[in-house]
Amino acid sequence: MTPKELSDIRRKLKVLNYATEIGNAAAACRHFGISGETFYKWKRAYARDGERALINSKPCPQNPKLRTPAHIEEKILYLRRTYHLGQQPIAWYLLRYHDIKISPGAVYNVLKRNDLNRLPQNAKRSKRVQLWQRYEKKVPGHHIQVDVKFLNFTDKSGRRVRRYQYTAIDDATRIRALKVYERHNQENSISFVNYFVGKFPFRIHTIRTDHGHEFQARFHWHVEDLGINHTYIRVRTPRLNGKVERSHRTDKEEFYQLLSYTDDVDLNEKLAEWESFYNYFRPHRSLEGKTPYEVLRNKLQLDINQPR
């Protein structure tokens, strides 16, 4: 007898014995929060067949005819293992690139059946009450959020290696630019600004950062000399740069969990591949399944078609 079956028997016997002790079935039902119908069903089963009758019956077997076809299930598992996409992005991806229409719930059932419904490093997160209103700029380049993600690796000799991922994300379209440096200082921050200013296909109005030492006076005046505004978020309010913070979580779940770092790995080369996938191919949940560059194209078309 399994521990689950023993638990079923003990729980139901506790209810039946309590009703016998107090001599009042209705009071016992109220005490344990069950219906009278359920109580008498257990009582009759116990009197007829003994303790084994108190074991919960197994659920109905699945109907293989209703299961997701094997070729679709194979694609779902590939996307999960290769890119760590969630159930909704997987459904969007299959519809967009394979013309396969499947619900997020069906995707979840496939993941759960194959024990892939939870990613390796995902910890349980308690629900928080949101006390602020999320915003979104309408014009590409109006606000660029910039931040640094600390990366910890172990090389072949077992020595700890730290690298720094600089990230810039456009508030309106979620287009990103990524680059890894061995140090985070103002010199590398300036280098990164020059990199994404030349890379983004739109004019940048404002760059927003936190108060880190890598974004101080030299960096600030370099940005201003480029004709771009530089603003700081309020101290201890990372939510004001929430889009870049959230994108770092995506990097952890969908990129770095899949990366095996050794000394011979070119992090910037790998990161460039991930950046391209993120910007051009990955369905984005907050963009209703569109990619960042699709959103940019739509916004530019709307701007061109608006009457002057």
Structural class, judged by helices and strands? Answer: alpha/beta
Averaging pLDDT over every residue, what do you get?
Answer: 88
How many E-type strands? 5
Helix content: 40-55%
Largest sheet: 5 strands, mixed
Distance linking N and C termini:
78 Å
Which regions have little confidence, pLDDT < 50, spanning 5+ residues? none
- What string gives the helices and strands in order? HHHHHHEEEHEHEHHH
Widest sheet: strand ordering: 3-2-1-4-5
Describe how the helices and strands are arranged:
Elements: H1 3-22, H2 25-32, H3 36-49, H4 70-83, H5 87-98, H6 104-113, E1 144-154, E2 160-170, E3 176-181, H7 186-199, E4 206-209, H8 217-225, E5 229-232, H9 242-254, H10 267-280, H11 292-305
Parallel strand pairs: 1-4, 4-5
Antiparallel strand pairs: 1-2, 2-3
Could you explain how this protein is built, in words?
By secondary structure, the protein is an alpha/beta fold. Helix content is 46%, strand content 12%. The chain contains 11 helices and 5 strands. It has helices at residues 3-22, 25-32, 36-49, 70-83, 87-98, 104-113, 186-199, 217-225, 242-254, 267-280, 292-305; strands at 144-154, 160-170, 176-181, 206-209, 229-232. It has a 5-stranded mixed sheet, sandwiched between helices. Strand 1 and strand 2 form a beta hairpin. Helix 1 packs across helix 2 and helix 7 (186-199) runs parallel beside helix 8 (217-225). The protein is elongated.
